[in-house]
Amino acid sequence: MGSNPPLPKAFRRVWAAASASSFGDGVYLTALPLLAASLTRDPMLLSVISAAALLPWLLFGLVGGALVDRWDRRNTMWLTDAARALLLVAAVAGAAAGWLSVPLLIALAFLLGIGQILFDTAATAYIPELLDRDPGMLKRANARLRGSVDVLDGFVGPPAGSLLFTLGRTVPLLVDAVTFAFSSLVIRSLPATAPRPRPARGSLLKEAAAGAGYLLRNPLLLGLSLRPAFGNFAFSAGAAVFVLFAQEELHLGATGFGILLSCEAVGGFLGSMLSGWISDRLGTGGALILTAVLLTVAQTSIGLTDSAVLVGVALAVRAAALSGTIVLSGSVRQAIVPDELMGRVAAAGRLLALGVAPLGALLGGWLATVSGLRTPYLVGAVFLAASTLISLTMTSNRKVEAALAAAAEEDGAVTETAK
Question: What is the torsional sign of CA 302, 307, 310, 311?
Fold first, then answer.
């Protein structure tokens, strides 16, 4: 029986850097609302601070992808994390000087969001470059990366952020700066890759539009992007009222609520680790159909049960299916998109997935107001059922395998031409 070749040492450094950043993100995302609430009790201002982190994706996501395709991806990653570390240190210094305010937090969240665009898009494009677009290695690499996010960002980071906040309001920001600095140094230590061919440059906006157009014209890539779009819309509808749902429908306090969030983190980790195993047995398309069904069933269960235990199980199943979807769809995208378009296509897909989340949150709040706290979950399940149809028709095994074969043939032709 053959064994999978080991992932290269360079990837292990990327994994270490991503793990440090995931921990820092968990600390930051927990501490930011606490820090904001210590400055204002105005719900509108609090929502503006939260929205400031997402707004850069809507404004600059496609342009960020075009820039990543122009720039060296390794350099983009370490310089971006170095800049984010310096930005957080400056914010801590500003707070020490008495300048801590809501406008400062809005600006901080916005600028860190721009950094996230550049880093995440560059990382998505750099991994297939590092692994020679090998589909098996990409699945294993993405499973490890996603597992780190689930454990460190979703499980370890949040309680650490709360604890650090009790030591000082800006201590979590300082810890996040340290994780960015560590990530920057580790990525900077990676060997430089050979310069990529540079096609003639045109308008940055035209280049960004070319990436979006490539995604929209490819049915498989479009299906892989519509899945998270439908999912984020459904999840955001429920997440908007989840605290109230836990308190009023499940009768849980702060401890019980924290346990539910932990169930999500554990489920997400298991899903990312099992995604490759399931894909080997059902095929990537079959695995994506399975995750879509599980997402629908889990979301429906949350809306129907009165048991906190069953909700915890459903959250774990939902998170496992979501992580598996992210790993598998991301691996296919990295294997089939041409290298020169990787950043732009990744950014376009991310924009499509994130752009609908605010609309889902607004719908969830309205549904909860007019129909009760369970309604957002049941309506969300309808959108997740629609994503199952997307998987059946647009991302089946046949279509995934055909796209992988075409990409491998194209890579082989490019290699022969280079010789």
Answer: positive
